[in-house]
Amino acid sequence: MGTIMKELWKLIKEPWKLIKEIFILIFGGIIFIVFAIIGILYTFVKHILKGDYSFSKQLIPIVRSVTLALDGIACAGAGELLNDVLRVKGRIKYGKWYQTISAITGLVHIYEKDTWFRRFLDKILGKNHCDEAITDQDRFYYKQN
Predict the structure, then answer these.
(1) Which pLDDT band holds residue 55 (cuts at 50, 70, 90)?
(2) Which DSSP helix (H) or strand (E) runs through 98?
(3) Ranges of H-type helices in 1-145
(4) So what's the pLDDT on residue 60?
(5) At how many degrees (to 10) do helices 101-111 and 136-144 cross?
(6) Contact in structure between 101 and 74 (CB atoms under 8 Å)
(7) Is pLDDT at 1 greater than 60 in this prediction?
(8) According to the model, what pLDDT value does residue 53 have?
(9) 121 by DSSP, 3-state: which?
(10) Mean pLDDT for the stretch of residues 23-40
(11) What whole-number distance in Å separates Cα of residue 6 and Cα of residue 12?
(12) CA–CA separation, 76 vs 71, rounded Å?
């Protein structure tokens, strides 16, 4: 009987992890979004009531954070697609939520090959954008390995 239970657990273990992550996404996502909206509204009201119109100094990091979060979601979500379309086969791959698409594209350019995608991003977002998007930590890690 113990063997049957172990085999059954193996079958449901991975789907159960996914179900837990989805549950955390739904409830955590709602809480985080509500918290962010309240914080942004607070920032607007605080600066307007004080007559301090430099609230863009506070909003720039907020907008930047949202952009980086969406970039991480896109990198994780489209990782396999980008790896296949761009024929990325080496040790540097798209798909990590904590890295930006531009940074991975820059790393692929430096350590593996140049791609049309890097040239496109650099043309749209600025010269050397992909190379400049690489964090010092990533540059150090991939240089060492």
Answers:
(1) low
(2) none
(3) 2-50, 56-77, 79-85, 101-111, 116-125, 129-132, 136-144
(4) 81
(5) 30
(6) yes
(7) no
(8) 67
(9) helix
(10) 87
(11) 10
(12) 9
